Amino acid sequence: MSLTDEDIAFIKAHMGDWLAEQSLGRPPAVYEIELRERMVRVEEELKHQRELMREGFAQMDKRFTLAEKRHEELRRDMLARFEQVDKRFEQVDKRFEQVDSRFDEMLRRHDRHFLWLIGFITTVGGLVIAAGKFL
User: Do residues 127 and 135 lie in contact, with contact meaning Cβ atoms separated by under 8 Å?
Assistant: First the structure.
């Protein structure tokens, strides 16, 4: 079933009246005024929402800036602590070098004492053997 041109013209002519009847019997002019008022309220609310969004984005920017500053402070603090740890490692390394040199010196003295003791035992043993031949 298709509409004829006559049917379409009839619908167009009476559409406004039918819509007015659906808006609780208000005349088309009142209905149009209500629609315009609603549009104005919607536009104002949209404007308000835009402002809220802008404020929210501005606050987010501030928070990001503060977070970046805090991260930078933490980074500087961390680098300073690493430098302190590096200095401490250098100090410990120097102390180990001192201990190593003292240990090396102790080993040299021990070697000399050990060699002296071997020489002494060899000499005494030789004397004991030589004395045993004479007795």
Answer: no
**Predicted local confidence at residue 23, as pLDDT:** 60
**19 contacts: CB under 8 Å, gap ≥ 6:** 28, 31
CA distances from 14 to 5, 9, 20, 25, 62 (A): 14, 9, 10, 15, 58
> DSSP code of 24?
T
Give the C-alpha separation, 109 to 104, whole Å.
9
Q: Where are the domains of the chain?
A: 5-134
Spell out the residues 6+ positions from residue 27 whose beta carbon is closer than 8 angstroms to its own: 20
Question: pTM for this one?
Answer: 0.42
Which DSSP category does 25 fall into?
A: T
The two three-digit tokens of residue 18, written as one number: 């039918």
Nearest to 20 by CA among 33, 10, 7, 29: 29
Length in residues, the chain? 135
